[in-house]
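Project standup — Tuesday

K.O.: blocked on the structure for the chain from last sprint. Re-posting the sequence here as requested.
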Amino acid sequence: MNSSAPLCRTPMTSSQHSPWTARPPTRCSWPTTTSKSSVRPAPSPDRAAPCTHPRVDERVAPQEADMRSDAPANKPTVMHVFPGQGDFSLDALRKAVQARPVVNAAARRVFPEVDAAVADLGIPALEPLLWAPAQQNVPASAPPGTAQVALYAACVTVHVALCQAGLPPDRLAGVSFGEIPALAAAGAFTVADGARIAVALARALPRNTSGMVWLGVGEKDAIRFLAELGDERVALGCVNGPDQCVVAGTSAALMAVQQLAKHRGLASGRIKLPYYAHHPELAAAAAEFESAVRAYPARPPGLAVFSAAHGRAYRQDEDIHHTLAQVITRTAHVPRVIAAACADRPALLLEAGTGASATQSAPQLSTGIRARAPLADEDFPWPAPGQLPAAES
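H.V.: unblocked you, prediction finished:
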């Protein structure tokens, strides 16, 4: 299970059949081999590697018929979007694991490997939390990096479940922290190394003296707001959509942000993180993170991976460690990267996370974009128990 081929491309062994069907699941499933032959040639940044798996069709999800044209040439690009940390809910994953067999099967493959990978880093086992009573989340007293590993494992689980359900991606996109699981899903890092990188990120960022606040305004208004604030300790961290941005800074400076927002009648809220990111003053933390992650080999992604912080796809000759580390200091711009990834054809965006923050504003960007958040949408068409994935029917 340490293969660096894309997770949606490597077949399972016969001993790993899904518990919800007597036949093997789709080819888009959890890797089980480290054979070099399983690593396929990587595509150019603007073209995903070919996949023999069917895309969205009536056999997979008749409810999704409105998301695509009947003309094959207009069939949408499927993109899995991996979110940042601000919208993570372990309870949402727990509910899906207990209610959706395909998510259950994916979690039973992902979490044991992730737990094993980070045990020597002092991270407690997370799989037991999937079967714990409702509302039991990662304890605040857990070692630094625990919550990030939980989010990482959740993102990979949703990605694998979507692949199993017959909705593998043509492209991937990562928003902030989400670039780590996106790169692992593309085979640039092994799943185990991706978990270790999540820990390295959490431990490189300064804690308890800073944070992030969301504002209910678009990019231009956020820039004007920061100019009025006049505090260089605060920077525009993320542009989530046409009507929401996130600013990052020291805790004291963020108090002034929320006071000014209240005075201006703007919606705002503190994001529950003990640190900040996407700030130019984090160059030292970015260097520390880059040094740490160079311990983990990187390969060219087997699928195009678009970065919200860089506004483009990772190149085949990319210094992935350096480019990933620079995310810490750069603004993550979700509309820009979605426009770059979806400029050439209609697109179906599926959030590979527990919420809907990374995709909720996407349909506002173009009439050719449809988006779903599988764990947040109660009516998302996961396969029913006993229903075969598309490739098996």
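K.O.: great, moving the ticket to review. The domain at 210-273 is CATH 3.30.70.250 (Alpha-Beta Plaits). The longest strand covers residues 235-241.
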